[in-house]
Write the structure tokens for this entry.
Amino acid sequence: MISHKDLDDPQTREVIIIGGGIAGLSAAIYLGRAQRDTLVIDSGHSMAKWEPVVGNYLGFPEGVSGDELLEYGRRQAEAHDVRFAEDEIRSISSEDEEFVLHGKERDYRAKRLLLTTGIFHLPPEIPGVKECLGHSMFFCKDCDGFRVREKRIAICGANNEAVEYALGMLHYSACVMIATNGEEPRWSQQHSEWIQEYEIPVHLERIHDVEHRDRQILRLRMEGDREVKIDNIFTTRGDVFHTELAESLGAELDEDGQVRVDDQMRTTVPRVYAAGCVTPANCQMIIAAGQGATAAQAMNRDLFEESLRNHSLRQFRDVQLRDEETVPEGAAAV
Ligand SMILES: Cc1cc2nc3c(=O)[nH]c(=O)nc-3n(C[C@H](O)[C@H](O)[C@H](O)COP(=O)(O)OP(=O)(O)OC[C@H]3O[C@@H](n4cnc5c(N)ncnc54)[C@H](O)[C@@H]3O)c2cc1C
């Protein structure tokens, strides 16, 4: 059967998704199944790669690695005819209702854009920490709190969030401390009172380094020779939102620097959508996947309505009427 996208200009995609992480792949599967001409452009740095055992994603009772989840998603999208390009989009311009994307490798054109560019969690600059990322050093208690039940846990941070993190971690472990790594505490009087009330130890010294073996943290070595035996570090996140492209198109950000979207994942720029951690989502894989699906459905609807307005659906119908069986045998023709 001829597809409507066979009639389109092959140089211009109906949808380009910038970012082939969890949100982008989920959107790609929906758009592929909706028969939309879709290209995913990805620079290959999904945060999902940092998680060796995702335990909170539906359908994997034994857990699944972030890498595997990305691979399954890509295979599923490719099975629905979605194309992929390894590239990094540097800038975007608009021309005649189309977007022109300027990549490191080449340029691309699209009628609709979905930005699923994600964020980057900044690990604390303590020697030894980076090696333990995703194994014994974490950013997110919703993701990894369950994994560290009954362990000795240090929360790195000096603000209200660090205190709330420490209090929240009491559900998982009795042994929780705060390490400010030499920073002067910035928490409020109320948070200070909570530290007292819940008897949370606080270490104010700078952390010299983290001793670890096979990515498992063993102890914090503080300046001044103190060593604290711990199993896990959680850090209050310094997040870098990958919003440069959205901003260059004029999309509004919220007060935290995330791309503002409505309940259909539309940004404030017509024909531009965003999903996943670059938006004010709670940065979880299943939420990113759900947002990707929401955005894809909204884009599909939007393109469908456009095809009624500009009669491109009628042109497609003309081809069907000319080349295909359009009336079931035995049914009356209109
Ligand atoms: C250590 C760690 C552990 C985690 N564990 C869990 C967990 O157990 N469970 C859970 O639910 N979540 C977990 N997360 C969070 C999870 O990784 C994110 O929620 C998820 O990856 C967000 O999906 P996304 O599509 O928004 O972004 P990402 O998956 O990060 O994908 C964004 C993609 O966009 C690409 N990109 C960005 N800019 C460009 C550009 N200009 N051109 C082309 N491509 C571009 C990037 O290369 C990347 O591939 C964890 C995160 C970390 C850091």
